[in-house]
């Protein structure tokens, strides 16, 4: 597959499972589906615009911050990928 499952495992061991893991490249469609089910955020294929990637990450970080507003938290700490702090792996 890709290194993403191992990266997710290590993130969990280090207590940073709430960090958004996203990436891209030439990843088979079946692998993308499996990776998303495991908690990987959006995966971007070749030719994806930088703007699309930036918009996705800003949206994911913003969703996490919005989810925490009602809880009185001063910093976003969402539970899973898709609405998490930004990070990246290749």
Describe, in plain words, how this protein is organized in 3D.
The chain is mainly alpha-helical and 90 residues long. It has a single domain, classed as Rossmann fold. Helices cover 44% and strands 4% of the residues. The protein has helices at 4-13, 29-38, 50-69, and strands spanning 23-24, 43-44. It has a two-stranded parallel sheet with strand order 1-2. The longest helix is centred in the middle third of the chain and has 20 residues, at 50-69. The protein starts with a helix and ends in a 21-residue tail after the last helix.
**What CATH architecture label applies?**
3-Layer(aba) Sandwich
Order of helices and strands: HEHEH
Q: Tell me the Rg in angstroms.
A: 13 Å
What's the structural domain tally?
Answer: 1
Number of beta-strand segments = 2
- How does the overall form come out from the CA principal axes? flat
Strand content: under 5%
Helix content: 40-55%
Determine the structural class based on helices, strands and strand pairing: mainly alpha
Average pLDDT, all residues: 79
